[in-house]
């Protein structure tokens, strides 16, 4: 009887160990994300100062090689970082990952891969130290650093508002560890998302560009990742519309920022409307006399 109970207990114990290891796996992904963003903020800001940054090389400072070769090398690793974010977010790749690891750990695996590619491009970064701008005015410098800080705070506040634990895969792993099914994904429209469609994107773009000291290498990084965000936002909208349908369309209609072409047409139409009465008015007599003398 005792042997039978012991044998029956073994699968339960294996399952407990498996879920414990899975939880540790997700915790390391969670911690790795904070380590990456801390490193990335120091890297972009050349902290504590550009002449003596804690990280060498930083985004702007460090030993320089050929500018063309540096830009090409940086672009390759940034593209790898972007491809990981996009490809692993696609449904077929998610299914493949879920076949290799338990499905509740799929998101944690995505986060691990994102951290790995992020640290890779920071580790292999080649500065291009051609200075594009360098503001030494104390007021301008302070304003830019404030905008830099606001950008990263906006990113983290947005992540918290949509559930940071779920975003980084720890919520799903914790539910699995406890033997519960993870909560189904819901469209998050609370807090910052009730005012801005993409507060996380706005935050990181501020973090890329708001600096009093900008070199060509830093600007290339900012432009590369900004372009990626613009393109990725389109795919994200399509995925959200597929998943949430009319609920997403109604939310976006209320809160989305108008597209640039539509906004430009609106401004142009308003200017045209205001100009027409001026254009149709008769030329004053004084102006006619001046034109006749000319």
Could you walk me through the main structural features you see in this protein, from its secondary elements to its overall organization?
This protein is an all-alpha fold and 294 residues long. The chain has two domains: 2-257, no CATH class; 264-294, no CATH class. The chain has twelve helices and two strands, in the order ααααβααααβαααα. The chain has helices spanning 2-45, 67-87, 91-100, 106-123, 138-161, 164-167, 170-177, 199-209, 216-244, 246-255, 260-280, 285-293; strands at 131-134, 213-215. The protein has a two-stranded antiparallel ribbon with strand order 1-2. α1 (2-45) runs parallel beside α4 and α2 packs parallel to α9 (216-244). The longest helix is centred in the first third of the chain and has 44 residues, at 2-45. It is globular, with a radius of gyration of 26 Å. The termini are far apart.
Q: Please report which band the strand proportion falls in: under 5%, 5-15%, 15-25%, 25-35%, 35-45% or over 45%.
A: under 5%
- In whole angstroms, the N-to-C terminal distance is 117 Å
The arrangement of helices and strands along the chain is HHHHEHHHHEHHHH
Over the alpha carbons, how many angstroms does the gyration radius reach? 26 Å
Helix content: over 70%
Average per-residue pLDDT, rounded, comes to: 85
Q: What ranges have pLDDT less than 50 throughout 5 or more consecutive residues?
A: 5-10
